[in-house]
Design a protein that fits this description.
The protein has helices at 21-35, 42-49, 53-60, 63-87, 92-102, 110-129, 131-157, 167-187, 194-208. It is mainly alpha-helical. Helix 2 crosses helix 3, helix 4 packs parallel to helix 7 and helix 7 (131-157) packs across helix 8. The longest helix is centred in the middle third of the chain and has 27 residues, at 131-157. It is elongated and about 60 Å long. 33% of the residues are buried.
């Protein structure tokens, strides 16, 4: 088992673009979700991606740089996709319910949701030990908090939620709750399904914001 790096220098730049670059990073995340980042080998990723170890070394330099690039890419992409999907929902209350749901998982497929949370768990573990990744995670969390905060503010502006609510605290609490429930999904607790966790998050926000209707909203896929 390769030990986790401790606060290495800046990440090596990727050496060239590749049309298969995203596929390789996705393959790396799949392996990380299954094996954990410490036990992920270049050979595992090469086999999953259908490429060679030398190609991975050419593109990323070494195992640690590949793993960190994969974790960074996946977490950034999830946030971007959530921001775009939320912006496309016109009704403020439906948008807030959608955001609350997707703080827990971005799929109603239990196995897919668990895999995503396994990636997040490895991301946290890596960030705790790596200064650069840890600094980046601050921005990632700010992005999720801002997504929830803007969705709440849209409801305030539309008159659905009272203007006196503590918007920032509610947004921070919702993100924290989503993380806690996501860990239970990753652990495979039989009672903690994706749908139940999403319902709990919406219900908690509905109580915090004194908006009972939020818990009853049917969210779009």
């Amino acid at each position: 088992m390769t030990s986790a790096p401790s606060s290495p220098g800046p990440r090596r730049r990727r050496r060239r673009a590749s049309k298969d670059h995203g596929d390789i990073l996705d393959a790396a995340c799949a392996v990380i979700a299954e094996r954990g980042y410490e036990s992920t080998r270049l050979a595992d990723v090469a086999d999953r991606a259908g490429t060679s170890i030398s190609t991975l070394q050419y593109l990323f330099g070494n195992r640690d740089d590949l793993i960190f690039a994969a974790l960074q890419s996946r977490t950034a992409r999830q946030l971007k996709e959530a921001q775009e999907a939320a912006a496309a929902i016109d009704d403020p209350l439906t948008r807030l319910a959608w955001v609350a749901t997707h703080l827990v998982a971005d799929s109603d497929d239990e196995s897919a949701s668990r895999a995503e949370w396994m990636v997040w768990t490895e991301y946290w573990r890596a960030a705790v030990r790596d200064a650069e990744l840890r600094a980046e995670s601050v921005g990632v969390y700010a992005g999720w908090r801002d997504l929830a905060q803007e969705a709440i503010l849209a409801c305030v502006r539309s008159g659905v939620i009272d203007a006196d609510v503590d918007v920032r605290s509610a947004a921070e609490g919702a993100v924290a709750l989503g993380d806690g429930l996501g860990i239970q999904i990753a652990l495979g607790l039989p009672s903690m399904t994706w749908a139940h966790a999403a319902s709990l998050t919406r219900a908690w926000l509905a109580t915090q914001l004194d908006c009972p209707a939020l818990a009853l909203v049917e969210t779009p896929a």
